[in-house]
# Entry
Amino acid sequence: MQGIDITIIGAGVTGLAIAAEIARPDLSIFILEKNPMHGGGISSRNSEVIHGGIYYPEGSLKSSLCVEGNKLLYEIAAKNNVPHKKTGKLIVAVKKDEDEDIERLYNNGRGNGVTSLELISKKQVSDMEPNVHAQAALYSPDTGIISAHYLMNYFLAKALNNKAHIVYQTKVVRIEKEASHYRIFTQNIKDENFEFPSAVVINAAGLESDTIANMMGFNYHLHYCKGDYCSVSGARPGIVKKLIYPVPMKKRTALGVHLTMDLNGRYKLGPDATYIERKEEYNVAPEKAEQFYQSAGKFLPFLKKENIHPDMSGIRPKLQGPDDDFFDFVVREDTPGFINLVGIESPGMTASPAIAKYVRKML
# Structure
């Protein structure tokens, strides 16, 4: 194989968005993916929510890239027939002392440039969503849902149409810096080894992004934070039309167990947040159904315990440990020609097209 211009490690939504943004016929671009299919990791295990940019500190990459990505995603989806829906979202104050929390979120979101936010009263909540219990709420009209799979298919098709290549079931085992390029050592599913030079490396390896970065002597450490989901059966279609979130957890490790729906109208609760050992394990414990009922039942009185069932889970690659405060995305050229994307958790899918543009400016 001749020398490659750019190698992207990881074919999740971030890696594919970057490939779609930078691919062109005069560049040799290869995407390496350890799984049998693109999006086979954490990109296919999330709420599929288009976030509004409310939660993250002003001036952070999470806030700016989320706000930009929100607009870009709706444009991409509308122009390219990617299934999506602008549902809107309510962050509900169940107790009176949570009013201050949603006011802080309102001010934070406005500081991030989210101008469509609205603080609404108990009566307005009731008029908007009669089956939701809240003292007050923060209304985000620009929040929505999207098919992550269709989105990733779109990004990949765009990249391939511009002569990028993708190689599946191939993992990176070592990277070495040479005079004018990086030498990438790989192993495929048949335990066959292959190496090749690449002028630029873009590390979008998700849960393993710290491992890839540290092959070059960097010192990143990701924490695996599992989020479980439960499905909701027996609820009348359309009983709730918007996404319903509680006030977020302290230190913002997660947004709290919330109600979302998919594009077919099926409801689910989650995710929660549990730091786990460093392994990909996606089982959902049966007791989560009871826990989710107790948590979400405070603002969703129509829920019945017997209609909540363990469903799916995902894992967040967090730079933020369980006792840490906020950690931002890392999107950085740590050494010339080697760009690391580490800690790309929520709102990573929403931010993905904006992340791609951000990376393109580094090239």
